[in-house]
Amino acid sequence: MPRLEVPPRPVLVDDQIRPEVNAVLDRFGPQVSRRSPSAGIDRIGRPLAGSLLQEEVAINVRNWLVAAACIFPILAYGLVASVAAIASTPAVEDTLLSRLTGVENACRPYPWLVTGGQPSADGLEALAEAGFHDVFDLRGAGEPRGFDEAAAARSMQLNYLQIPVTPADFTDSTFTAFRHHLLAHGPQKPMFIHCASGNRVGAALLPWLVLDKGHSVDTALEIARAVGLQNPDLTKRASDYTRTHQRPK
User: Fold this and answer.
1) Which alpha helices (DSSP H) does the chain contain, by range?
2) Poorest-confidence range of 60-69, 125-134, 222-231?
3) Confidence band (pLDDT; 50, 70, 90) for 60?
4) Which residues have CB under 8 Å from 213's CB, separation 6+?
5) How far apart are CA 136 and CA 195, in angstroms?
6) Arithmetic mean of pLDDT over the chain
7) Rg (alpha carbons) of the chain, rounded to whole number
């Protein structure tokens, strides 16, 4: 008697994968037989469903790789072009400093802090129009300015404070007083500090930059020299004060 072969029992498709399976069946059409009883349950062999799903995933992965191969070079080109454009764009000029061309060593270490040498009346006007609040003058009363700086500043609604110091006057108390003045200012009270050339200003700023703003000594020295610090004795005094007042790490 011939042996009877019993066909494998159809397996119910899991609800979670039914949409994916149906999508595959719709794509392959007559290549796959799909039976849908009145109850709406699709029946196919699980091995066939697995192979079709694997093929579907492979097709999707291939399509994504093709798309990525086309898109990534475009994005990379755009990024390179943007970087090149930025690199070739000149730095935006500080319009305030451009109006202080007559001020020796005019510098802007922070947006709210401008430093330099002796300003003119036009320089004070530029500071007032830029929204600056205070003017700290480190020059002595006998040093020539070419005009009545105090009267000009006050006529422009600038708070003028004269703190006369000479290189010999820089003591620990002087540095501490400057730190307190600087700490009392900020974005809400922009200030301009000047001496004759920026040399004394740079010395006054050095300890504050390290002790209160957190810069390294090397960075602070670089900023102070850009401000105008040149005198070796002032540099040593400011550095000694900074070293003795640094907190141990």
Assistant:
1) 18-28, 46-88, 95-98, 121-129, 149-155, 172-183, 199-211, 217-227, 232-245
2) 60-69
3) low
4) 220
5) 9
6) 77
7) 38
